Amino acid sequence: MTVDKKVSKVTSLKDVKKYFSDGMTLMCGGFGGVGSPPSIINSILEQGAANITLICNDAGFPWIGPGKLVTEKRIKKLLASHIGSNPEAGKQMHEKELEVVFYPQGTLAEKIRAGGMGLGGILVDVGLGTIVEEGKEKTTVNGSEFMIEPALTADVSIVYAKKADPYGNLVYDQTARNTNPLVAMAGDITIVEAEEIVGIGELDPEEIVTPGVYVDHIVQSEGVDWKWVWEKRKDN
To answer: Is the Transferase keyword given for this protein (predicted)?
Structure first.
């Protein structure tokens, strides 16, 4: 089926580089590097953007996923659930080169989801009575106290999909799906790296997880050896 170029969101890695800038807030899908968009991350490194605030489940590994951006000291602030798989992130944090804000994984995911849904924030009770509540706004609902966690959004969201059609409908690959559907909703600009770009009508509607309304641009993946990634993870 022929797709009108005016509505097709398929573009090149070269053309999306203009969306990356110094000081931007970047949201990245992935879990331990799996499901993170490798070609886009390499493109950011080539483009040179720095002083980035990164929102991601974790810091990846030093040579996998968003960990590359940390290793190259492109990140000034990281919002994540853990950084243990990336020693470089821990080193930079202790040397005060990298500011790290930790959230429980579920809280982080919900803050991103809230941002994508246009909500102001979420209510949580995890951490009440501890240092976690310092500086947090609180409210009472039905007699129970909660902390208010503001929603998270980003200037640019980058995600990885197994398949995409030219309108931006996305299918993910099993566990590589992880936070990608949430991240796709929460960016002012959402850029998708797709392993495969298929024609209109080739995706089973029941397979589609992220509808194209959330997607602004799609680039073809330059490929990643996921077997190598898993082997390197096991060696760590």
So the answer is: yes
